[in-house]
Specification:
Blueprint: E1 13-16, E2 22-25, E3 29-36, E4 39-44, E5 50-60, E6 63-72, E7 78-86, E8 98-101, E9 105-106
Antiparallel strand pairs: 1-2, 1-9, 3-4, 4-8, 5-6, 6-7, 7-8
The structure holds zinc ion (ZN).
Zinc ion (ZN) binds near residues 16, 74 and 75.
Amino acid sequence: MGRLFLVNLDGKVYSCKHCQTHLALCEEIVSKSFHCRHGKAYLFNNVVNVTMGLKEDRMMMTGMHTVSDIFCVGCGSIVGWKYEAAHEKSQKYKEGKFILERYMVAGPDGSQYLANLDSHVGGSDADDA
Ligand SMILES: [Zn+2]
């Protein structure tokens, strides 16, 4: 494996909680009212330093979506998913955007979110904003 080329972000940054690789800027947040299997998740316009998994159709709270899991390039941890396509018209605003699971990332002030143990069961869910 060659040397990893990482993008460094300036400002309020969300980073991988395992290896501190920068993932997204605070100002790229579209919505904080999403949920995943570990509790809260945020929708971002853009993220950096991630690799994409295979596309798959996933049933979410707001209908069927085509998504790809996204992984930190620094350590390979899954950090969220990307919306490739939304099947419901009202959910099209999510297309091309990214979810970061709050539990998987460290916040701008270094804060870590503890998993909500009594959160949703049965995989990843996206809430309507
Ligand atoms: Zn990482």
